[in-house]
Amino acid sequence: MELSENKIREWLGDDKHRPYEKTLSCRGEPCVRPVRKKSMVSQTRVNKKITFSVPWFALGFTITIGLGFVWALLALPVIWSGSGNLQTRVAQGLPLSRIAVGLVNGFRFRFLATADDQVYLGRAGWLYLNQELHMPVDAENAMQTRAKAVIALADALKIRGVHLLLAVVPNKARIHPSYLRGAKIPLEAGYTQWLNLMQAGGVATVALDTALLKAAQNQSVFLKTDTHWNTVGAKVAAQTISAALSDFGLARAAFITTQKTRTKEHTGDLIHLMGLEGVFPPFRPNSELETVEQTQNTKVANQGLLGVPQTEVVLVGTSYSLRSNFSGVLKQALGADVLNLAKEGSGFERSMAAFLKDPILQEAPPKVLIWEFSERFLYLPVSGPLPVMP
């Protein structure tokens, strides 16, 4: 069968722009195989799309980066002018302060390797509160003043039949000093001095520093980008407190702690303090994964009057008692229910002062009152009345 050029055109359709290539043998006769190619018009359109899309993308990227550097350059005089909190200075010195604060802080963290005035940059992504590394001038006198107030309060509570137990959370820098890049811990013996003052005054205190230091030899007990302990540190503290109360004959209850979710991404309070919560790595420290746990009651303690369970342990304190399921693992370690009256941002005295005015102290005083607060509060100037029995 002979394939003529007309037959091929009839089969493919008459397309004068279609080229034909590669002469082949067809039953002994020469024939051609049609090769379909994109027309010059369509190829030109594709080339135009590619030609114009790449420059627009590059232009947008360049503008975005450029604006960031413009903001940073505008803020450089603000960064190095005066003293005080950087975010406040930027907010006063630049328009669109919320955006500016994030850009300036991100620029400073990434390219100048410095942080907010309140935060110290350690090694390997560890952050510390600067307050832990710069002791007030009159720190020891402030500690002495607080010690006298605590001893007097413990004596007054003892008259009411309430046993006071202090749980002072040591500074993060004291427990994890190896990431400090050479910075020294001021008043290194401060925690031990406090323990000695409490022992001399007859106030029960657990040495959380010893327990946490021992645990920190093998694993982290504080969060890298946060001032608070992690779930490991919370458990160590709970077990240490439980050991100090083993002879109190508390009403028995049973609790079980399980992981609520496997892990969650945690952005520490020190990242927020740096003004970087709206910025993404690498212009801020990486978030870390945190295990989320919950504790449930599996056996209720003995009933009190009118069939209502009596809470024999009350916990007052700071945000440490509200983090990493501390009160939950404390219940499990004690084998007793715990009424958690801790308050966020309560400092040294506010949570305790609120409890002393609570009707529960008059109507159903607990056997044990656990008072948790951070070591750094011991050294701050005393600016107001300290907790006293009403």
Topology at a glance:
Elements (H helix, E strand, L loop, with lengths): L4 H8 L7 E7 L2 E6 L5 H40 L6 H8 L3 H16 L6 E3 L5 E3 L9 H21 L3 E7 L2 H4 L14 H11 L3 E3 L1 H9 L14 H14 L9 E13 L2 H5 L14 E12 L13 E4 L9 H9 L3 E3 L9 H7 L2 H5 L4 E7 L16
Parallel strand pairs: 5-6, 5-11, 9-10, 9-11
Antiparallel strand pairs: 1-2, 3-4, 7-8
Helix pairs in contact: 2-4, 3-4, 5-7, 8-9, 9-11
The outline comes out as globular
Number of helices: 13
Instruction: Please summarize the sheet with the most strands.
Output: 5 strands, parallel
pLDDT < 50 runs, ≥5 residues = 15-25, 37-53
Textual characterization of the structure:
There is one protein chain. By secondary structure, the protein is α/β, with parallel strands linked by helices. 40% of the residues lie in helices and 17% in strands. The strands form 4 sheets. Strands 6-5-11-9-10 form a 5-stranded parallel β-sheet, with helices on both faces. Strands 1-2 form a two-stranded antiparallel ribbon. The protein has a two-stranded antiparallel sheet with strand order 3-4. A hairpin with a 5-residue loop joins strand 3 and strand 4. Helix 2 packs across helix 4 and helix 9 packs parallel to helix 11. About 7% of the residues have low confidence.
